[in-house]
Amino acid sequence: MTSMPLWLVSLVDVIFILSLAYLALVAVVMLTMLVLALIEGRYRSQQQRFEDHAGLARSRFTPTVSILVAAYNEETGVLASVASLLRQNYPEFEVILVDDGSTDNTLGLLRHHYDLEPCDAGGRQLPQEYERVVCFRSRVDPRLSVLHKNNGGKASAINCALHFSQHRYVCCVDGDTVYVPDALLKAMALIVKDPAVVVGVTSLFGISHTPGIDTGRGPLALERNLLGRLQHLDLMRSFVIYRLAWSRIGAMLCVPGAFAVWRRDVIIEAGGFSNKFTCEDIEMTFRIHEKFLREKRPYRIMSLHEMVAQTEGPNNASALVRQRARWQRVTLETVWHYRRMFLRPRYGIVGMLGVPYYVFFEALAPLMQALSFVALMLLILMGQVDWPLYAVFLGTVVFANAIPSTMAVLLYDQAYRRYSVGQLIRLLILGPVDLFVYRPILIYAGLRGSWQFLRGDKRWDKFVRNAR
Amino acid sequence: MFSILIGLFVFVFLAWLGLSVYVVLNRLHHERRNHLLGKAMSQLGHSQPVMLTAKTRSDLVRPLINRLPQPVVYRAAADVAVYMPVAQVFAVHALAQWGANVFSIASELRPGTDRWERISALSILTQVKADCVHDLLFDALQDKDPDVASSAAVFLGRLRDKRAAELLVLALRSHIYLPSFIARQLDGFRIPLDGLLEPLLGLDDAQVRYWAVSLLARHGQGGAPVVQKIARLADDPDPAVRKAVAQTLGMLDAADEALTVLQLLYDDIAFVRVHAVKALARFNRPEFAGSIVAMHGDPEWRVRLAARDALSSMEHTDTLEAPDQFQAADGLAGTAFWDMNTLHAYAFENRNWQTRVHSGSETGRL
Question: CA distances (Å), A165 to each of A50, A101, A172, A321, B331, in order?
Fold first, then answer.
């Protein structure tokens, strides 16, 4: 055994015990989430069997929606995305795409494909920031408006579109994502049942290397590349287990920007999306929770496990690290900004459970995981690792970590039956693989994002779009 | 320690394996059932199900159904994803096989009935148009469970007969369930409902008046008396009702009530003015174009935008283009009354005397 100073040995012991305690806590939370997700998942899948989607799709009383698309350098996917949005099986909607100062041919492609003609702002009273926006209306499909503005970030682009929107609900989407025809309908079906209370809805979306391409395999075909498949499984786990579980208890704290239906007046009342954060989506969700809970107003923000879209995922580890570092950064920014909600009974379950969960299992997770790794390295150096014991321990963690993924696959398959048996088996096998291939990338990205947060970095750091 | 960890590992591994095997087996089981259903569907599909009698359809599918358990038959009969002729056969079969049970589940006589089972039973009875189904659905509509209540509303809407309409109107009137949800069902009825909806126009409840007026846009074929009753609500204290009046008169193409719509063009509430503009556009008559042009001077951008869109959607308005002041960012917000008077000059030349008179009075007011 290598001789080590006593303080180091004690420190390693403390870290080791802390890591074990953290792991035990993770296990308890995971089990609770699994139970909640099972209850909610079964409920939602039964509910959608009886849902009158056809009636909703043809009724003139179905609430109208403005779809707001933010696009920055999206020439590779914007046409597929807009086409999928204009194909929505929904009675009345408009699509407002904001080209946020793209330096590529995003606007040119749209002008050519949709025969855009310049128009004015329709007499709207716009804030100074948007006075120089150039507006276009499509001659091919009058439901499509395109706005071109100087680059100002995603929040600024969505806010600009918000000023132009005319309908009671807005659906914020991304310009690199392709949507299924019933995406809007499925989300709105939930809202029309309780329009006074449900203020926000999101739904599962999958990962594709090139969304909208290779549609011969179906619009929601499972990604072929391993990293893409692991990201897909990660999103399934995140939506089908965690978001569904939090949705069940009214503490779903992140409505992702790739598909977020909001009641427009709620967003306006909250002051629009904020540019002070790296990403706008999670902060808006926190803000609405905070506002409604503080004002003691009834509200619900919900998540569905129906796959409504496919978004482009990074196809290499470095791009994935950049993306996830950004996510980690915004999580830390938001949690720090809303720290007043932490363990405050006036914020109910959100304050007592939701925010602490975000602090311990999202914001601090990379740090805890890295610490455990350091402790392990030190234990190896000190020659204190009992290898057979460690192997069994690692095996336990591997399969315990795979259980939420397996449960997500089960709940999704029972509800929608979209994947073949072969694809299901491939997804199930990925569960245990996740810890060795995918998790280390996430830990590294998490640490990098945390460091960027401490440095006050706010860059979007967009990954290069995959070649078509 | 080691043995505890081994035990834990075995437990976790078996849990993962068991769950994974269950996912696959569950799916294979589903595939088998789906295969049976698919067979039934393709048999029906090839034989042009619309042309088949219910009995023939039933004969084709029954051998397949007999092998399925009760919950599967229930769910398939009610599942919106199942091909309608097949679902109907399932419904008939369920009733023949477990008739009394279906009734007791639908009426929630059996304690501990799961909500989906009840909804399935109600769906089955709706599909076969059982005698008592209206009352059962009305009871379900009053259930505390929103899923049961919303399904009952949808099923009443699917019945599309007079009795179902009466019950839905009663539900609308008594706020038994979400009015917008009830209204959506009533809007789908093919039979005339003006006789049921008209009495609602005189009620004190503004929400009920609003929905009655809105629904009459599709069910207001009762002629001039109904239209006049709707028009009388243009003075309603609730702006939502006034908006509905403008909308409905437009949809009914009630140009005889143009004066009412013109009156609503100058309502205090902007969204009422927006819908009044849209209603005039629907009339699509050149004599109203002047009044629409006048709305380019409205202080609210939505009204100005509606006016511009209305003009571009109307025929024969080439000479009545929007003035140059219609600029981005500020529109006509700062336009003086002088401009408004100029704009109203268009209206003075209208052939329709009501338009001329009304425009004149409005200009005077300005």
Answer: 32, 20, 11, 35, 17
**Residues composing chain B:** 366
Phi and psi at residue B336, to the nearest 5°: -80, 170
Question: Which residues, other chains included, contact A385 with Cβ-Cβ below 8 Å and sequence gap of 6+?
Answer: A376, A379
Nearest to B343 by CA among B315, B308, B302: B308
Q: What is chain A's pLDDT, residue by residue, as a tens digit (468 residues)?
A: 556 788 888 888 888 888 889 989 999 999 999 999 999 999 999 898 889 999 999 999 999 999 999 999 999 999 999 999 999 999 999 999 999 999 999 999 999 999 999 998 887 878 888 888 999 999 999 999 999 999 999 999 999 999 999 899 999 999 999 999 999 999 999 999 999 999 999 999 998 877 765 555 555 667 778 999 999 999 999 999 999 999 999 999 999 999 999 999 999 999 999 999 988 999 999 999 999 999 999 999 999 999 999 998 888 999 999 999 999 999 999 999 999 999 999 999 999 999 999 999 999 999 988 888 888 888 888 888 889 988 999 999 999 999 999 999 999 999 888 899 999 999 999 999 999 999 999 999 999 999 999 998 877 666 666 665
Scan residues 186-215 of A and list those with Cβ closer than 8 Å to B: 192-195
Distance (Å, whole) CA B342 – CA B297: 10
CB contact under 8 A, A428 and B150: no
Distance from the B19 Cα atom to the nearest Cα atom in chain A, whole angstroms: 7
Q: Using alpha carbons, list the distances in angstroms from residue A271 to A266, A288, A297.
A: 9, 10, 17
Global pTM value: 0.87
d(CA A392, nearest CA chain B) in Å = 6
Confidence of residue B320 (pLDDT cuts 50, 70, 90): very low
CA distance linking residue A78 with residue A84, whole number of Å: 10
Asked if the Cβ–Cβ distance from A46 to B326 is below 8 Å, we say no
Q: Which residues on chain A are in Cβ contact (under 8 Å) with B332?
A: 123
Q: Burial, A402: exposed, middle or buried (Cβ in 10 Å; 0-12, 13-18, 19+)? A: buried
Which residues of chain A neighbour B333 with C-beta distances below 8 Å?
123, 125
Q: What tokens were used for B143?
A: 């259930």
- A128 interfacial to chain B (CB closer than 8 Å): no
- Residues B306 and A124: their CA atoms lie apart, in Å, by 12
User: Within the 264-293 window of chain A, which residues sit less than 8 Å (CB to CB) from chain B?
Assistant: none
Most B CBs within 10 Å, among A52, A89, A190, to test the B interface: A52
Cβ contacts of A165 within 8 Å, gap of 6 or more: A66, A68, A94, A96, A264
A123/B2 CB distance under 8 A: no
The complex's ipTM? 0.90
* Euclidean distance between CA atoms B6 and B323, whole angstroms: 83
CB pairs under 8 A between A and B: 149
Residue with tokens 């029906």: B44
How many angstroms separate the CA atoms of A246 and B261, rounded? 49
| Best to test chain B binding among A44, A47, A49 (most B CBs inside 10 Å) | A49
Interface test with A, best of B6, B8, B9, B213 (most A CBs within 10 A): B9
Q: Inter-chain contact B20–A406, Cβ cutoff 8 Å?
A: yes
**Distances in Å between the alpha carbon of B23 and those of A51, A107, A312, A399, B365?**
25, 46, 28, 16, 74
Query: Is there a contact between B147 and A47 if contact means CB atoms under 8 Å apart?
Result: yes
Burial class (CB in 10 A: 0-12, 13-18, 19+), A21: exposed
Q: CA B285 to CA B316: how far, in whole Å? A: 8
Identity of the amino acid at B284: N
Measure B224 CA to nearest chain A CA, in Å. 24
Q: How far, in Å, CA of A127 to CA of A299, rounded? A: 29
